[in-house]
Design goal:
single chain; alpha+beta; binds glycine; six-stranded antiparallel sheet; binds adenosine monophosphate; five-stranded parallel sheet
């Protein structure tokens, strides 16, 4: 099969790396890809959000299958467009990708189908939002409705902070139109877990659980990022909690989307909080999480292409999905300053040495004129190692990352420790 993966981050590198292991994949392409992906797939210079360009290229080059990995093209309906052109694609259609594209939609879905989540109200008028914040008190959570690159959420410790956030979103349009509707939620407490699940519209098969580290600095301080590291599986996610999530959250969500005429085919991301009252949904995403994907796919012991095919064919319940014993840790090496201002274009050294004991997924890299690797993004690399235990996996990832260097490199020293 000739397969095209859409995207350019660590997640797409991990997907390509896993697909490369499938005997069914005879030719692998990635658009636009990055310097690391270029080592295992042919990179095609088309932007991930260029729906027409992507469909035209896939048709002209006779792709047998396209994997749409990032949220933006999913929300734009790239899967629908590929299908309309007769090209099988992995990922939810636009009407199902809305679980990520609209928080208001997701919250209403959970309310209607009794899926546990924080109590909330949706507002499109500032005055009413401010009055609700006053009435509820703090701590309280204020969220922009649309896609805001993970930055549209404020966990406010005081009423004033919450009101400022609401004003910035609705009045000052800090996130553009994404903030014209906001969601105000009860503040939940407890460890945060990610469960990625394959779904075929009807059946759902959770992957090994994982945990992201969203804040930039040690001790969960600093600004929210796309994720500074991930472990799989976290110890808090016990078999009892997993069974409860399956019954109260995963199956009901997939059934709810089907009942709404929006069958979800792809990877459904469950952001969960294990609260004192039980597991509750923080958010849904319509795709693999990154960096969680890098840790989780490292533990997959089955053919990913087979699973993608089963998701499209509706046969996921019969699919052979096995996981390796042990654990994985993905340590993100980022550009100093990320997620705010940072510089790009610095040479990266030590990769070969690191690759002797870990898989180094590239997130933001490009090739220089002499074929050297250069930094090209906020998150640069994801050093991913396995271990018999989580402690070993974490130690292996840090040891492997040791020789890697680039100017202003920043990473957290407490991945897997702070929870
Ligand atoms: P979201 O984009 O909805 O995942 O929110 C980003 C982050 O904000 C989450 O990963 C949580 O750490 C935090 N958060 C979101 N909603 C809540 C909530 N209702 N209670 C406590 N923390 C939350
Ligand atoms: N790591 C969080 C996300 O992919 O949304």
């Amino acid at each position: 099969m000739k397969v095209l993966v859409v995207g350019s981050g660590g997640r797409e590198h991990a997907i390509c790396w896993k697909l490369r292991q499938s005997p069914k994949v005879t030719a692998l392409f990635c658009a636009p890809g990055n310097a690391g992906i270029a080592g295992i797939a042919a990179c095609v210079d088309i932007k991930a959000t260029d729906v027409d360009g992507m469909v035209a290229w896939a048709r002209e080059n006779a792709m047998d299958f396209v994997v749409v990995a990032p949220d933006d093209p999913l929300a734009l309906g790239m899967v629908d467009a590929l299908e309309a052109a007769g090209i099988p694609a992995f990922g939810p259609r636009k009407n199902a990708a809305i679980v990520e594209a609209s928080k208001a939609f997701s919250k209403e879905l959970m309310k209607k189908y009794h899926i546990p989540t924080a109590k909330y109200e949706t507002f499109s008028e500032l005055d009413r939002a401010l009055a609700y914040i006053e009435e509820q008190g703090a701590p309280i959570v204020v969220k922009a409705d649309g896609l805001a690159l993970g930055k549209g959420v404020v966990v406010a410790a005081t009423v004033e902070e919450a009101k400022t956030a609401a004003r910035e979103m609705m009045e000052d349009k800090k996130f553009g139109e994404s903030g014209s509707t906001i969601v105000i939620e009860e503040c939940m407490t407890g460890p945060e877990i990610t469960v990625l699940a394959f779904a075929d519209g009807e059946h759902v098969r959770p992957m090994v659980s994982s945990q992201d580290h969203k804040r930039a600095y040690d001790g969960n301080r600093g600004p929210n990022t796309g994720g500074m590291g991930a472990i799989a599986p976290p110890s808090q996610y016990t078999p009892e909690i997993a069974a409860r999530c399956m019954e109260e959250i995963f199956q009901p969500t997939v059934a709810a989307l089907k009942a709404e005429g929006r069958p979800f085919c792809g990877v459904l991301y469950f952001g969960l909080m294990l609260t004192p009252e039980g597991p509750k949904v923080v958010e849904y995403n319509a795709r693999f999480g990154d960096p969680e994907c890098q840790a989780v796919l490292s533990l997959l012991d089955s053919d990913l292409m087979d699973i993608f095919t089963a998701c499209r064919e509706g046969t996921l319940d019969q699919s052979d999905i096995r996981w390796k014993d042990g654990a994985a840790c993905c340590l993100v090496l980022a550009s100093g300053g990320y997620p705010l201002d940072y510089k790009k274009g610095y040479p990266i050294s030590g990769l070969e040495e690191a690759e002797k004991s870990a898989v180094v997924f590239h997130a933001g890299t490009k090739l220089g004129e002499n074929g050297e690797y250069l930094t090209n993004g906020g998150r640069v690399l994801g050093v991913t190692a396995l271990g018999d235990t989580l402690e070993r996996a974490i130690a292996n990832a840090y040891a492997a990352a040791g020789p890697i260097a680039f100017q202003d490199m920043h990473f957290r020293t407490d991945i897997g420790q702070a929870f």
